[in-house]
Design brief:
106 residues; elongated; 83% helix; single chain; mainly alpha; 4 helices
Length: 106
């Protein structure tokens, strides 16, 4: 039972970080998101290996439901970050255009 509790606690930590990152992405706080993203990466590396055979059917269902919610949060974050990628791409293109113009008019 301790393994299940530890696993669920780690998934809850990941979900909490994803919610924070999702809120930052929604408000286009890209600098803050970049600063907080390593917290998510750290929690993903701390997730224990799940040995499904060790859990009862009920515990497995609970764990599966949590993992599905986690995946949904992750997918929503990726969707929200599409705006960030677009913004970065636009900035890069503008920077390259400026550099080309500067070189051309030297």
């Amino acid at each position: 039972m301790a393994v299940l509790e530890d696993t669920l606690a780690q998934i809850d930590k990941m979900m909490a970080v994803l919610i924070i990152l999702s809120d930052l992405a929604e408000h286009e706080s890209w600098d803050d998101l970049l600063m907080d993203f390593p917290k998510y990466e750290q929690t993903t590396t701390q997730l224990p290996q799940i040995k499904w055979a060790e859990f009862s059917a009920e515990d497995s269902e609970t764990l599966r439901d949590k993992l599905v919610k986690l995946q949904e949060l992750h997918d929503r974050l990726i969707e929200k970050m599409a705006g960030f990628r677009s913004e970065l791409k636009e900035l890069l293109q503008n920077s390259m255009q400026s550099r080309k113009l500067n070189e051309h008019y030297r």
